[in-house]
Specification:
mainly beta, 8-stranded mixed beta sheet, 5-stranded antiparallel beta sheet, 3 helices, 26 strands, 43% strand, elongated
Length: 364
Amino acid sequence: MAGTSCKQYYNPPAITANKNYLVVSGFIDAGEDSSIFTLTRTSNLNSTSPLTTELGAVLTIEGSSGYASQLTELGNGRYGSSGLHLDPTQNYRLRIGTTNGEKYLSNYEPVKSSPPIDSISWQRSDSGVTAYANTHDLSNNTRYYRWDYVETWEYHSLFDSYWHYDTASRAIINNNIEVPHICYRTVNSNNIVIASSAKLTRDIISFAPLIVIPLNSNKLSVRYSLLVRQYALTADEYNYWQALQASTEQTGTLFDLEPSQITGNISCLSNPNEPVIGYVGAGAVAESRIFITNQQVFPWYFNQGCVEMVYGSEPDSIQDAVSQGLLPVDAHYTANTLTGYVYSQNVCVDCTLQGGNTIKPSFW
């Protein structure tokens, strides 16, 4: 008779270990732009808890000539300073003190100024739109590059409505106040984009892919902006981002990493054996912004999956529609008699329910 056995579920240490290591994200901007740092903590791979941010820390940018500037806590683990206008001939580092008494310090790094961005180009394909960075350094001194970006796009809800549900009367009214119809949404990049010309004769980067906008995404349903920031890196900093890129592609997110596999330039002074994730570089950033309109990528059809539904005009029918998350679009008449209202899904009427707001950006 065949033997029987049971299977025991195995949780490897990488999943079950409670690793609460510090993650430092940010850059010392030597120019006129703000220097922003975010402090968070790693979690184990099967954790479902929200990302832990480090609050109440003291961050100070220090220069090799004795310069010191303390950052301001901005909330939610973010710390920042306005334009520092640092001396490019000096080296700089970041000192961190946390509320639990731990002390962290990055290595001194030289100021690396990025050459200008030659252009941000894009191409349309069957899968969507891909944006690329193009740059060069005639002095052949940069060689290592990193980019991040900020996306902003205008989008419209499918239905433009002035109809509202009045909770007091349980009735649909038209008060000439438009339901938010035109919105703008801004999102920061969360992927790692790097390139190197170290193996080339000339310091030229052509068509470094930045982002792919999927076909018929609402990002290009009206008008889209891409603000690209270019950083010049040291060889060690580039190697750090390259290792981090490989790890995040395997695990899916920065905060699931095995920190011992990633060597940055930050150490824990109070506990030298504690890994720290992050690399604090210093430099001046180059920026470039492009706009893409829906007409430029036509045909580009954003389908919100919206449908229209008619419910009766009596209070119970109105309540039934509203309870399903529907919003009124128009009145429905039969033989010149009001018999009900036309509804659609709330995200098809109120554009703010898709994550944006009605405030037009200053650069729009």
